[in-house]
Prior knowledge:
Helices cover 21% and strands 21% of the residues. By secondary structure, it is of the alpha+beta class. Keywords: LIM domain, Metal-binding, Repeat, Zinc.
Amino acid sequence: MPPKFGGGDKCGICSKTVYAQEKIEAGGVPFHKQCFKCSHCKMALNLQNYAQAEKVLYCKNHYQSEVVAKNSQIVS
């Protein structure tokens, strides 16, 4: 029986296999380093400058404008 490849963790953005040398993990979800970017402005993120809401990645600025601002409008 031939060996199976590609059975590792899957990226939370592109769903392709993430190998150890290209992996960044946030919120228990693995990502490729090149996929780990703001969903709004596409800025590259790291573990110090990212925010996450409902499995969507944001830079700090867009997290404030897209998530916090919208949630505060719902509560008011």
